[in-house]
Amino acid sequence: MALTLATITPGDPEIFASIQGEGPSCGAEVAFIRLSRCNLACVWCDTAYTWHWEGDAKKFRRPHRSGETFARAANQVKLDEAEAARLVAATGRKRLVITGGEPLLQGAALARMLQHLPDVEVEIETNGTTTAPPALDVRVTQYNVSPKLAHSGNAPELALLPERLRAYAVDPRAFFKFVVAQPDDVAEVLALSDLYALPKERTYLMPEGTDSAALSARMDWIEPLAAEYGLQVTDRAHIHLFGDTRGT
Ligand SMILES: Nc1nc2[nH]cc(C(=O)O)c2c(=O)[nH]1
Ligand code: SF4
Ligand SMILES: [Mg+2]
């Protein structure tokens, strides 16, 4: 069995040390591991190299606004769990952020990898459509759940699963992080927050964007709206620091 990881360059698995750029632990010194594949298809996804494949039959092709497609061979790498754990340990970080793509599509393999990392704290970035198997869930300190709004282009019946959102809402480890691109998106967040009883102290608005200027422009209206409605805000610190690059 193995994990299918994203790559920084062909053949080089996307495992790296950085700071957490988003959400409640923004600024923390962490390691990242990025898994390949996603069950959703956000038109603005900043990691389309985990799912937008060259050569996918047209009827299966999920649109992305860039139009760019990626070769699987260059953008995926299989690694056994012990080797992935060794590369995580080599970063020297004591906290690991597991991201993707949608990392919970490989929950069982992640649980096996973590058996080799007994002292590492774990944070998971997920789109909220799936759950961790129990062997993984017991290792998780924090879930950063990012449900996708209408502007993502995903069908709501695929992106917003009521029983999953309700389960995360009552889990004190789960924080909700909504990507917003325009003020109207906040109305949608508030409606979902009411419908699924998402606690506002655990609900963050985050600007959509992959450059500093776009993020800052959106923060200008996000901050006052968040204050008005009692929601939290997060920037994307790594984009300001490093730009939109792999392995950061
Ligand atoms: N530094 C840094 N922080 C992040 N927080 C969430 C990320 C993600 O891609 O899920 C991410 C990322 O890619 N880099
Ligand atoms: S859920 Fe995340 S990884 Fe999947 S397409 Fe959307 S933004 Fe990209
Ligand atoms: Mg990212």
UniProtKB/TrEMBL annotation:
Cofactor: S-adenosyl-L-methionine; Mg(2+); [4Fe-4S] cluster
GO BP terms: tRNA queuosine(34) biosynthetic process
Entry annotated with the keyword RNA-binding: no
Tagged with keyword Lyase: yes
UniProt pathway: Purine metabolism; 7-cyano-7-deazaguanine biosynthesis
Coiled coil, from the record: none
Swiss-Prot/TrEMBL keywords: 4Fe-4S, Iron, Iron-sulfur, Lyase, Magnesium, Metal-binding, Queuosine biosynthesis, S-adenosyl-L-methionine
EC number: 4.3.99.3
Domain of life of the native organism: Bacteria
Annotated PANTHER family: 7-CARBOXY-7-DEAZAGUANINE SYNTHASE (PTHR42836)
Family according to the record: Belongs to the radical SAM superfamily. 7-carboxy-7-deazaguanine synthase family.
Function: Catalyzes the complex heterocyclic radical-mediated conversion of 6-carboxy-5,6,7,8-tetrahydropterin (CPH4) to 7-carboxy-7-deazaguanine (CDG), a step common to the biosynthetic pathways of all 7-deazapurine-containing compounds.
Protein name per Swiss-Prot or TrEMBL: 7-carboxy-7-deazaguanine synthase
Originating species: Paraurantiacibacter namhicola
